[in-house]
Amino acid sequence: KHQLLQSVPQMNTTIAGQSDQIFRYRAGTLRSVDDMINDVHNSIMQYPSLFENTYFIYTSDHGFHSGQFGMGFDKRQLYENDIRIPFYVSGPGIKAGSMSETIVLNVDIAPTIVDLATGSVPEIYDGRSFVPYLKNPDLDKLSASVQQQFLIEYYGEGGANPVCCGNGIPGFSCQLCDNANNTYRCARVINGTDNEVNGTIFCNFLCYDSKGQNQVECEKGTPQGDGEYYDLEKDYYELDNAMNTLSTDVKKTYNDMIDSFMACSGQTECNKLREGAS
Known about the structure:
By secondary structure, the protein is of the alpha+beta class. It has helices at 3-7, 13-45, 48-51, 80-83, 109-118, 131-135, 137-144, 223-226, 248-263, 266-274, and strands at residues 56-59, 87-90, 147-154, 163-165, 175-178, 183-191, 200-208, 215-216, 228-231. The protein starts with a helix and ends with a helix.
């Protein structure tokens, strides 16, 4: 694991208890969210013509970790628990209880809403509308049979030394959660042509000086300098960094993919990359 996780001390009873308490706080907060969704849904149902023309989208801007890899609680890591989000949609033309194998990203929400409202998506959007996949099961099956891929990126906060989360909560102590060197760019790939279900993730890191302002070279021979790679078909919990098992050619393929995603702009360019095209 990269520098930040190597700096995280082993969880003691206090940190574990605080992480559990945050989990309970979040679960409690969700009860009010559930109540609000129920109230809004029931209010719109009172107007049948409006309800029959309304879509409900339930999702999140990020995942969360609560003790994974010894980290107390936060959301800014490259691992599955932090990048996966719930995604539920209901509305006209969507079959109740249906599920999709198509990968949907946060960047897809805006073009989807515009598509639902106007029937088209402006070229300027990097994300794509998933309206066709909501209403056409055959398209969804086709999507699951190809290589799906996307970019994950995050820019760490603070200097090169770790910063705390939780120390602003009364009674809570510092839990290391971020630093400038927790800056990464990852290619997340699920290759349906090989019948992959969970796929792979390949990540490179950027490194900064002690003030977190100037980029410096990452130390070679370390996870920070060499990157992290996980084959989730074999190692779903991402315990084994397998970067050193990859050939130079495979690394180049992933690096080229990341560069292409970083450089792309608009519907035509970016969406072509989502399904393995260069």
